[in-house]
Amino acid sequence: MTNDRGQLSKTSLRFYSLGGGNEVGRSCHILQYKGKTVMLDAGVHPAHQGLASLPFYDEFDLSTVDVLLISHFHLDHAASLPYVMQRTNFRGRVFMTHPTKAIYRWLLSDFVKVTSIGSTSFSDKDENLYTDEDLAESFDRIETIDFHSTIDVNGIKFVAFHAGHVLGAAMFQVEIAGLKILFTGDYSRETDRHLNSAEVPPSSSDVLIVESTFGTATHEPRINREKKLTQLIHSTVMRGGRVLLPVFALGRAQEIMLILDEYWSQHADELGNGQVPVFYASNLAKKCMSVFQTYVNMMNDDIRKKFRDSQSNPFIFKNISYLKNLDEFQDFGPSVMLASPGMLQNGLSRDLLEKWCPGEKNLVLITGYSVEGTMAKFIMLEPDTIPSINNPEINIPRRCQIEEISFAAHVDFRENLEFIEKVGARNIILVHGESNPMGRLKSALLSNFSALKNTEDEVRVFNPRNCISVDLEFKGVKVAKAIGNIVDEVSSTLHGLKELESRSDVKPQKEHGEGDGEPKDVEDETIVAGILVSDEKNFDLNLVSLSDLRDYHMDLSTTVLRERQTVSIDCKKELLYWHLCQMFGDMEVLIDDAGITHKGESKPNGSDELELKIMGDVKLNVIKNVATLEWSQGIINDTVADSIMAILLSVDSSPSSVKMSSRSCEHDHSHEQDQHNDLWKIKQIARLCTEQFGDCFSYKLDESGQDIKGSITMGKNTAVINLTQLKVEECNSNPLKGRIESILSIGSDLVAPLC
Ligand SMILES: [Zn+2]
Ligand SMILES: [Zn+2]
Fold it and tell me: Where does the Metallo-beta-lactamase domain start and stop, copy by copy (predicted)?
């Protein structure tokens, strides 16, 4: 057994189940990545009681959990939440959807009652996990999340998607530092009588944590199951029998009621016009029904249409009566009873089972998923006797008929596989399944994806036991989000690109990232320049333009770096000035004590200082034989400074220096000199291009006197540049062309003032 004491590398995602690993029940999973901890679900195990029903909370330091997400209100996903919030050192924030929170409240207050009744029978008060007060105190601290809206808690982002299954059930897509993990919770991909099927989140996920309840089993078509259900019930009541349908108070109970209510209306004559009653027995029936009535708008079109058209609520049934307890129930003849809890552990459904199971005309019809170790699972073995819950000494004979028709809203193999393929995650973690079906599902998935084995897209499938961690390594996933002005720049560039190429598949990409080294279609990429700001705490990586920096990152400012270099020179200032004129043409004269430039006033004062401003921002100061260059860092200034430095260092040894020393720049230039200048210009431009494009840029100096051309190849984008005429001659990408043109214009500014 491993736990959080093991070292977790910076790039690995750790997953482990505190419950729900190789079992159905006490769902609870932990995700750790980049120092963040997310907990998924906090359920109880329906086959156990008291502390034994909890996930293995002692195996994990709950104080480290940042966020706890509850997928839906079922007890195996939510019922230990008050325990976590009130009885442990958990300090994180808790989220669930609105309907889940509304129903959770009623369900858990009932759960407290039922379990405290259960525990008094064991005369052990400590077995109470929590009290009504715990429930009430923790309830207000539960935050709600709307479907499809993103919440960000200190860098942990998550979105809820519809999961089908039961009202309010959510899948969560969690994103930490660009890594996306999808947790399905319990989900169904079938549109039933009141709910839509689960959604596939629009953006891909790196890791999928998926339920495996039905393993590789296939559901019979729904229409057949409905027919079987109504026929079985019909024939049982016709022979004078009673039908017991153990149901979970909420969710599937309402689904079965929708089926039965419709059937009873359609077959009123045969069923003796109300002579065969249908009951729904649950302490919560009425309260929960009002929640269902409230959330009709979250259900499917069919239900919403019924609600709109008939002006009556589809959850107000004509043929079904509510029973709060069995005292008011007069058991005189055939009847149909939906009763909770669904797994016959205790309560109303258990009382009715013990009462009716000796009668051979009667029928117990299991419609939900039955967890190992519960009475519902046991009764399906058709035992001769069952133990009485209130008097364990007594065995009750079982003669009634037992049938199972599943209306459990979980995906079957075909639906699960289809969903898994659509999500496209390369790492799949199976949860919420008994060992055998889960193992079979793992084998089936591996064989389904076997063609990808040993490729980059290999799909890995895990079925970890509780408290056994799965560590997944990820290369740093970096996604930078462009914000502010840059977004407009990108979209206008892309707009232009779209018009030019009239292609429909070039999408504006506001997010640029390097995934798992996936080669990207170069044509779909747009080159964006800006400042990359990384927020280590929230894992935000933002690309902003310089002008926006202060708006988006108050704590950051821009700094201008001044550079200064001093060299000693061994030549006359006149000679130096002449060389500088050759290269830069007119220069601003700041100080000229000796009157070398014939521009400044000659002020012989012995100091003999010369100071020039070259190309706008580079200052050269010469006193005696010490030359000092000063400039603000930047691509143009650096280039200019480099060139000046080259002159400073070479001027004394250059053979032309002596020859030219008597000439000044006002003299006419020889043809040879012009050619020399042209070549120098081209070299400077080429140098700028190399700085910008690196190895992607190449050019060849041609002695033939023709125009000198350079070329750029970046993936599928290519360009030919005429370096002599400073023109882009060919280019198949507009953004690239724009970028080259701006470099050429910088470059021409740089070399233009040559005299
Ligand atoms: Zn469920
Ligand atoms: Zn479940």
Answer: 25-241
